[in-house]
Amino acid sequence: MTIIANVLEIAHRQAAAAGAARINRVVLEVGRLAGIETDALRFCFGAARNGLSAEAGLEIRDVPGRGLCAGCGAVAEVSEPIAVCPACGDVLDIDGGRELRVLSLNVD
Ligand SMILES: [Zn+2]
């Protein structure tokens, strides 16, 4: 719930800065390793959408996890926050998939 409150605050601030009266759509980027249930996000968005137009929608873009190997330089898609390099077995540094950000807004 807190996450969506923050998202809506950012959305409102950006819409106000753009001089927009209405938010039609919020596009969120959510990393697969961010530990966020997108179903819960959608539910909370529906419950906390005060100030948005009734038909405002939430679009969630899923960002795959990405690990970088310091040992051999390989880049691999990962589904867990701790993963090993498929090429050499070193522990990967996670450099993608933990994001949660407002990617764009569609406003009037
Ligand atoms: Zn490696």
Short description:
This protein is α+β, with helices and mostly antiparallel strands.
Write the layout of secondary structure elements.
Blueprint: H1 2-17, E1 23-31, H2 38-47, E2 57-63, E3 65-68, E4 75-78, E5 93-96, E6 100-107
Parallel strand pairs: 1-2
Antiparallel strand pairs: 1-6, 3-4, 3-5
Bound molecules: zinc ion.
What does this structure look like?
The chain is an alpha+beta fold. It has 2 helices and 6 strands; from the N terminus they run αβαβββββ. The protein has one domain: hypothetical protein PF0899 fold (2-Layer Sandwich), CATH 3.30.2320. Bound molecules: zinc ion (ZN). The site of zinc ion has 8 residues, from loops.
- Major beta-sheet overview: 3 strands, mixed
Distance between the termini: 26 Å
- So what's the overall shape? elongated
* Low-pLDDT regions: none
Integer tally of domains: 1
Mean pLDDT: 90
Number of strands: 6
* Topology order in helix (H) and strand (E) letters: HEHEEEEE
CATH class: Alpha Beta
Bound molecules: zinc ion
Q: Look at the helices and sheets and give the structural class.
A: alpha+beta
Helix percentage: 10-25%
CATH topology: hypothetical protein PF0899 fold
Radius of gyration: 17 Å
In what range is the share of β-strand residues?
25-35%
How many H/I helices? 2
For the record, the CATH architecture stands as: 2-Layer Sandwich
Provide the spatial order of strands within the biggest beta sheet: 2-1-6
